[in-house]
Amino acid sequence: METVVKTATSVLKGAPKVAIIGAGVSGLISARHLKDIAHIKVYESKHDIGGCWLYTEESERNHPDLDSNAYYKLYGNLHSSLYHNLLTNIPKECMTWKDHYHHEDTPYIMPSETFLEYIREYVDKFELSQYIEFNRTVTSLRRVEETEENSHKFKIEHIHTNTKEESEVVEEYFDYVMVCNGHFTKPNIPNFKGIDTFSGTQIHMHSLRRMESENFDDKNVLIVGAWVSANDLVVNMFFREDTKDLVNPKKVFITGKTTTLLEKSEDYKDIQDQNLLEIKSGNIAEIKEHSVVFGDGSEEQIDTIIYATGYKYSFPFIDPEQKIVEFDSKGTEGFYFGPLYKKMFCINEPNIFFIGIVEKLPIIHSTYERQILLAKEAIQGKITLPSKQEMLEDLASEMENHEQTGKDMSYFYKFNPAGYSYYDYNKDMEALTSMEVDTTNYSALKPANKAKSDLVKAGNAVQVKNLDYSEYLDGIEFKPTSSTF
């Protein structure tokens, strides 16, 4: 491949150069906040904005030529994990970005395409398209030595995603990098005993686009996983008026690491009594050609297995030899990497920021935006991070506290109300910022978040989807601004 070296010009004389990898939620919010203080460039591997909110019918199962896709060759899978008919599972206020508010007639729980339109309006409002290079897959991120010709810290290489159209490698140099490539891309498929012997269909939620296009009718379907995506499937199959008639499975089985919430759910009692749904405890012990043996010793004939087993973190463009970050190899590979300070600052290379990797938090996008504002302050020199040793000690203390919750490191970036919670994390971020802290907007959402949390803890996924947020949010003016943290 031919290599081309690019240099950027901008009216921001003397400002640092910042690379932003990804034009999804985190990447676009990063671009909005950094464009006035830095030379920025956003690399997006797809043809359009939106990240995981950009729906496409294309998947690994129907792509005409995977070998021509640079992203697939790098990651081992394609980009989008969005399935048709998806509804958000948190109210619109929890998906509101500073200075950009949802329309009054937008429902609290919205279709994915409505949120994608919100994203498009944001890009237009802040004139972000000019900074985005589409169909560019970042293949390499390396630390480089400063020379007379290059005063920057990092070299990024990228190629056209469709390698049939363009094959040249482009090199560019930057002072800072915002890693915003998301964590709903690399599917986690557990290596169950006998998984390769199964003669039926196996599919991860990552590749599922439309339920009606799958041959679920009169089939025994096993859903592996017991959290959000698994519950979404059950709700769509049996409860949502606009989707429940799309498929007609003979019976659905569901299992996972823990099925406690499912077992106590009031919402699923009727379909369990009708023998349409059965919850199997103990996860999978073995997969056979036509059946599955569960941890409780029972065995069931299964036609289709759907893995709703989450995603792994993946940064194949980061040179592993430089050990900028490393993945845990103690049974949780792909679920934990580091070392990161406050779950975002790369300790080995503090000019790299990992945005939006945290999970299980009620006000998700505001947390991402706060991370971005902290990164902006660090770039501007308005905040000073502790020394490397101090950051490592802080991380060690955080890990020790995490171990006391009884969870392994695969849960480290998932907030735990019984351990290090979302609220603890936000207090830690507030302690770092030099900005005035917004004490009004986010606290107004606590009653609604508690109502949802109580239903989740009771395993009532249908009631979560049908929760009437107007009781908690009508009359509340939720309008966070960039003037406060």
UniProtKB/TrEMBL annotation:
Keywords tagged on the record: FAD, Flavoprotein, NADP, Oxidoreductase
Record-linked InterPro entries: FAD/NAD-bd_sf, Flavin_mOase, Flavin_mOase-like, FMO-like
A single MF term (Gene Ontology): flavin adenine dinucleotide binding
UniProt superkingdom? Eukaryota
Which cofactors does this gene product need? FAD
Please give the family membership noted in the entry. Answer: Belongs to the FMO family.
Can you say what this protein is called?
Flavin-containing monooxygenase
